[in-house]
Amino acid sequence: MTMSDSDNIRSTPGPSSSSLFKSAFFTLLGAVVVTFLFIMPAEYGVDLTGIGTKLGLTDLEGAATGPAPSTAAAEASPKLLAGQFPQPPAAEDFDYYDPEVMSEPFSRSHATPFRSDTIEVPLDELEHVEVKANMKQGDALVYSWKLVEGETVYTDFHADPHETDKYPEQYWVRYKESEDPSASGSIVAPFDGNHGWYWMNIEEKPVKIVLEVRGYYDNIEEIMRAYQ
């Protein structure tokens, strides 16, 4: 008696339930291992085993996603005072005929000419005033002021930008606030704008301030004066 092809197919045993379970289990286990060892470090920067770091997979996560928009914008913005003070070179590295180039932030050219101003600022009791220098971004000045009459005055040294469409409404920055009788220093303008002093007489008698400014700015003038 011969058996037909259909009888052969029916008589061939299929995989048992136990074999199917083992195959599915090891497939799932392999996927979990690959995910933890390779996919998570490369895609998400999560390296629970340390293998991803050793293989350099965690570096791929930063390269794929790139910096956050705010970080990228900050890196693209000009850094006015970025850098480190230079260290003395080793004797064998020094070349008298080919000196190191010292540029920003240690040396900078300015579009505006150098100028110098001395301003007297008298203040009656309860009077306040603003004196501002009009500066371009990157311009620098040095200043010194002191009370020649009186003992103390409230000072707010600050700046506000010209290009108000680029900054939030009423945006401004403060350099220093004090009730000192004098101050000296320097600034590099972070933006095009007005940079200077608000003084308020907090004594019960008139006072007088003498302000000296040297540097790069378009002009300096009194822009506000009033009584409390």
Structure notes:
The model is unreliable at 1-12 and 62-78 (pLDDT under 50). The chain folds into two domains: 17-75, no CATH class; 116-227, Jelly Rolls. By secondary structure, the chain is α+β, with helices and mostly antiparallel strands. It is elongated. Helix 2 (17-44) crosses helix 4 (58-65). It has five helices and nine strands.
Index terms:
Jelly Rolls, elongated, five-stranded antiparallel beta sheet, alpha+beta, 2 domains, four-stranded antiparallel beta sheet, single chain, 228 residues, 34% strand, disordered N terminus
Secondary structure: elements and pairs:
Blueprint: H1 5-11, H2 17-44, H3 51-55, H4 58-65, H5 69-76, E1 114-123, E2 127-135, E3 140-149, E4 154-161, E5 173-178, E6 182-188, E7 193-200, E8 207-216, E9 219-227
Antiparallel strand pairs: 1-8, 2-7, 2-9, 3-6, 3-8, 4-5, 4-7
How many domain units?
A: 2
The spatial strand order of the largest sheet comes to 5-4-7-2-9
Can you count the beta strands? 9
Looking at the overall shape, the CATH architecture of the largest domain is Sandwich
Major β-sheet, in short? 5 strands, antiparallel
What is the CATH superfamily of the largest domain? Mitogen Ypm
What is the helical fraction, as a range of percent? Answer: 10-25%
Question: Could you tell me how far the N terminus lies from the C terminus, measured between alpha carbons in angstroms?
Answer: 122 Å
CATH class of the largest domain: Mainly Beta
What integer is the average pLDDT? 78
User: What name does the CATH topology of the largest domain carry?
Assistant: Jelly Rolls
Radius of gyration: 36 Å
Q: Return the structural class.
A: alpha+beta
DSSP strand (E) fraction? 25-35%
